[in-house]
Design goal:
Elements (H helix, E strand, L loop, with lengths): L3 E5 L6 H12 L2 E4 L6 H8 L6 H20 L4 E4 L5 H7 L6 E6 L2 H10 L10 H7 L9 E5 L4 H18 L4
Parallel strand pairs: 1-3, 1-4, 2-3, 4-5
Helix pairs in contact: 1-7
Length: about 170
């Protein structure tokens, strides 16, 4: 049976790093959510303009369709995607069951990491808007929150342990 995981959280929380670890250690097919953005979205963010819900709907639908296509092929997937609002997560799991792994940390910690990141179109100036939009996982959502405190290997292990537990038991830790 396939499992579909969305590594979610604000910019700079480590989504791509954790998704790559899941791909490498668990053998899931990986997609970088940012790669699904149309050029207009990337241009907006590059200029420090936050995306609107209207900007995000087609992007989220495309990611959902990718997971659905992979599911039909029997592949387990991991996607790095901000998935900041519950209604965004609802789009992502519309056609397949999804386990959401929310990488959570303080705005100060993540802002510091984001400021050190090189070569990404998302400027640190947009981080406050991401925290303003962030709706933590609700009790009725299939997901787990993982702290980003500590080094990358520790965060990766926390996330992978939660995914493996879910994969083995069908339940959250």
């Amino acid at each position: 049976m396939s499992i579909h995981v969305v590594i979610m959280g604000v910019a700079g929380c480590g989504k791509t790093t954790v998704a790559q670890a899941v791909r490498d250690r668990l053998g899931f097919v990986m997609a970088e959510g940012d790669d699904f953005h149309p050029k207009a979205n990337v241009d907006k963010m590059s200029h420090g303009i936050p995306l609107t819900d209207e900007d995000r709907w087609p992007w989220l639908e495309t990611i959902s369709q990718w997971m659905t296509d992979q599911d039909k092929q029997g592949n387990s997937t991991v996607v790095s995607c901000s998935a900041l609002k519950k209604e965004y997560r609802e789009v992502l799991h519309k056609h397949v069951d999804v386990l959401f792994v929310h990488l959570s940390g303080t705005q100060e910690l993540i802002g510091d990491r984001l400021a050190k990141r090189k070569g990404h179109y998302m400027p640190p100036s947009l981080l406050p808007s991401q925290f303003a939009d962030l709706e933590p996982l609700q009790e009725d959502e299939n997901g787990v929150t993982v702290s980003v405190e500590g080094d990358p290997a520790t965060v990766e292990s926390r996330a992978i342990d939660a995914i493996k537990h879910y994969e083995e038991t069908g339940k959250l830790a």
